[in-house]
Amino acid sequence: MTAVKKRVSKKNKRSWRKNVDITDVENFLEDQRLEERLGVKFSDTKNEELFEIDVKGQDDSNELSDIKTNKCPRVLLSKPNNSSSYRLRETELPKCYEILEKRSAAKIKKPAEATKKQRVEEEEEKEPVKKFSYDIWSDDGKNNKIKKENEWIQIETLRHNLQNIGEHKKVIPKTIQSKTSKLPAIDIPHPGLSYNPSLKDHKEILSKAAEKEYALIKEKKHLNRVTKEMFSSIPREEMEKNWIEEMCVGLTVSKSDSDDDDGQEYKALNPPVRNKKKTLQKKRKKREALLLKEKLKNQKIEKKKISDLHKLTKFNESILKKEQKIKEKMEKKKEKQKKKPFTTRVLSQIKYQDADIDFQLPEELSGNLRNINSIGSILHDRFKSLQKRNILAPTIKRHYKKAKVKKYERNHTKMDWEKNDSMSSFKKLLKK
């Protein structure tokens, strides 16, 4: 007897979803999705691609060698004669040595060493640890492959996503391949710094040092002029008097002002409003003025159009001037880029300053190496060279103020004899 089909309502979408069985459709779609993920349909593939016929077979020789014989058959095996087995060993001494060695080894062996050995063996049995044996800077094509597959993703996003995967590649700094500065490591010193310089070279080095010192004095004078000398010194009493006068401005009211205010009558600022209508003549004149204004405006626009046509030559000249300016700007930029490797960059808040010129006065010159005076420091010279070549950031010695500690005495920490008035009076006398 066939089962009676259940009749259900299919009026709404909800009832359709609830009562209609679509498991076969879902299974079919799931198979389709699986084939799409794998890339090839199972129905289109050949049997040779899906299955493989095993021709070699299994090699059971290793497995058979590992199987140990049971102890029961060994016992049943025939034993050799005692006489023959005794003849195999010439003397009993080697056997004794073996027993003694085993006993001594068992005594020496500690439980900690045994556990350590066991742990090492267990770790060796596990999978070997992958050692770091590749170059992180090498370009083996992985990075290019990732870029081709994900062209719509930015490089920063890729680097962030692949940070914890083996395919992540480090960014090579640009300064590894090329130096930031082309300045020489050791500057050739001025000939005037020699222990036996010529008169011309010595004068040149002295003039350079004098110019540098003069510039420092000039800057110091300028700072004093715009800070200290700009404001006159006022005594404290006069300053307090001026401050009181400034603060009291507007507080006192004179009697004459109050009397004048009482005598005056209230008057409105604006005149009274009257409902005065415009005449027809005024309305007509206003309308004519507006029309004339509009007409003049249109005439002006037309006149400007005609004048612009005559100004084409001027426009061409202005365009040429702009192009010339852009060209000059680009040339300056190129020159600046060329000079950039030979200049010192700003690496910190403090700008680089050249070291002071080490010079000798004419009376200090010795003329020979035996009586020469040592000037400057090689360490300081190398330090300045590193700063100049953008290897080290310029720094200065900073002096930090220490916080002043306020000292005071607590009464509860004193003894009774210390709290006496006599002691306090004695201390006051000492302070005076």
Gist of the model:
The protein is mainly α and 432 residues long.
Structural summary, described in words:
With 432 residues, the chain is mainly alpha-helical. It is 51% helix and 0% strand. Among the domains are: 13-50, no CATH class; 65-124, no CATH class; 281-323. It has helices at 13-19, 23-38, 47-50, 61-66, 71-76, 82-88, 93-108, 111-125, 142-149, 155-161, 199-226, 236-247, 255-263, 280-310, 312-339, 378-388, 421-431. The protein is extended and about 120 Å long. Residues 274-285 have a biased composition (Basic residues). Belongs to the NOP53 family. One of its GO terms (molecular function) is 5S rRNA binding.
Task: Give descriptors for this structure.
single chain, 432 residues, mainly alpha, 0% strand, extended
Number of helices: 17
Gyration radius from CA atoms, angstroms: 52 Å
Beta-strand proportion = under 5%
Distance between the termini: 128 Å
Q: Considering DSSP H and I runs of 4 or more, what fraction of the residues is helical?
A: 40-55%
Q: In terms of per-residue confidence, which ranges show pLDDT below 50 for 5 or more consecutive residues?
A: 82-92
Question: What is the averaged pLDDT score?
Answer: 78
Keywords: Nucleus, Ribosome biogenesis
GO biological process, one term: ribosomal large subunit assembly
GO molecular function: 5S rRNA binding
Function: May play a role in ribosome biogenesis.
